[in-house]
Amino acid sequence: MRKIFWILLIILVLIGGGYYLWRQGFLDPYLGSYLPSPQYELQKEETSTPTQVGEEETITPGVEVTEVTVEAEEFSFTPSTLTFSKGSRVRLTLKNEGSVSHDFVIDELNVNTTLVSPGSSLTVEFDVPRDDLMVLVTYEFYCSVPGHREAGMVGTLTAN
Description:
- This protein is of the alpha/beta class and 160 residues long.
- The protein has two domains: 1-34; 42-159, Cupredoxins -  blue copper proteins (Immunoglobulin-like), CATH 2.60.40.420.
- Helices cover 14% and strands 31% of the residues.
- It has one helix and ten strands, in the order αββββββββββ.
- The protein has one helix at 2-23, and strands at 51-52, 65-73, 76-78, 81-84, 89-96, 105-106, 111-112, 121-127, 137-142, 154-159.
- The strands form three sheets. Strands 1-8-5-2-3 form a five-stranded mixed beta sheet, with no helix packed on it. Strands 4-10-9 form a three-stranded mixed beta sheet, with no helix packed on it. Strands 6-7 form a two-stranded antiparallel ribbon.
- The protein is elongated, with a radius of gyration of 20 Å.
- The termini are far apart.
- 20% of the residues are buried.
């Protein structure tokens, strides 16, 4: 009888601890993977001022800024396709409508935001490269939280 009591107590403690970690945002409820604690995320995710991404970025005078809002949730971006003119400057606001943290990454353009907590947003600015070729260029954007890209949290940015 005593052995059963201790086994049940241990099971209850494990379930309670798992629930606590899930409610605090330490566990992704869909994948069971560890997520960083929100207290360690960078403070700038809550600001509304544009953030430059990448060390070689420069603001070109006279270039019109195109603003777009992308909503992130499990496991998709809305819209999932973006189209901009080559040479344009983009001000993108990532709005997290999901229940876990997400980010926004475009490897080829050096766009890599910090994690954005559920209900928060972050704005970044970047330039779409200009070239003399008359071809469409497509870049993939994705969420780099472990498992999210693999679950389909990807999209495409087309430069024409």
